[in-house]
Amino acid sequence: TTPCSSVSAFVAMMDSKTAGENGALEHSDAGSPLVALFFKLVRSLPDDSLASLTAAVPAEPASLADLTVLAFQTRATRGMGKGEKDLFFKMLAALPVEAATATLHLVPHFGYWKDYLLMQGVAGIDAAVKDKALSLLADQLLKDAAELEAAEKEARTPNLTLAGKYAPREGSAFDGLAKRLSTHLFGNKNEAASARKYRKLVASLNRALLTTEVLMAANRWAEIEFARVSSLCLQRSRKAFLNEALKGKLAPAQEETGNRHPEDEQR
C-alpha cells in the first residue's frame, strides 16, 4: 500500500460524522487516532504532541499504511494537502524505515526535489532514509542527463524534471551534499575529477531548464525571460505567450487574462 492507494480506511474514517453540541454534523475522532492526528496537524503542533499522537496509531499494516498516506497528504502542495514541510519531515521520522524508503520516490510529486536535501538535517530520520533520498536524486540527475543527450541527438525538446535545479552546489549551504553526490555518481578515486564532472552535469541541466521550450513544456511560464527568447520561438508561440486561443477574438474582459487558460496564474 502506498499514498496513491485508491481505497483507504483513513479516507473512510474521515467521512464519519457525529452530531455536535448544536445538532450539526461534524467530523468525529472518537476511536480513531488517525483522524485525531489529522485535525491536530497544524504548524503550531508541539513536537511532544505529535509524538504522542503518532504513537497512538496501532502498529498494524493497515494503520501504518494510512499513517504514511497522512504524512504525504500533510506535505502535499498545489492544493492537494496542507503543504506542511516540517511536519512531514517529523512524521517521516516516525514512520517505519521500510514504509519511508518504499514511498520516498513520491516526495517530488507531493513536495519538491529540495526536500531530499532538507531532510538530511532533520534529527530522527533514519540514516537509511536519508541515504535513499540522495540516491533517488542522484539517479534522477543521471536520467535527466541521458534524456538531455538523447533529445539533442533527436533535435527535440527534452522532458526534464527539476532535479537539476535543486541539485546541491559546492560553496552553498549544501556543499557537503554536493560532494557526497559527486562521489556517489562518479566515484571517490579522484574526488577533484568527480567534482568537475558533477558541476558539468548540473550546469548542463540548468542551461536546458532555462530554455524557453522546456519552460513552456513544464508549464513554468512565469519563469520565461522574454529578452532571451529567440525571434523564431517568439513568432511561433506568440498566441501561447499572450495566452490567447488560436481562433476567435478576445472579449474586453479577457484583455488582461487572455482566453486560452485565463484561470492559470502561470499564464
From TrEMBL:
Domain DUF2828: 135-243
Region of interest (Disordered), ranges: 248-267
Basic and acidic residues composition bias: residue spans: 257-267
Transmembrane segments: none
Name recorded for this polypeptide: DUF2828 domain-containing protein
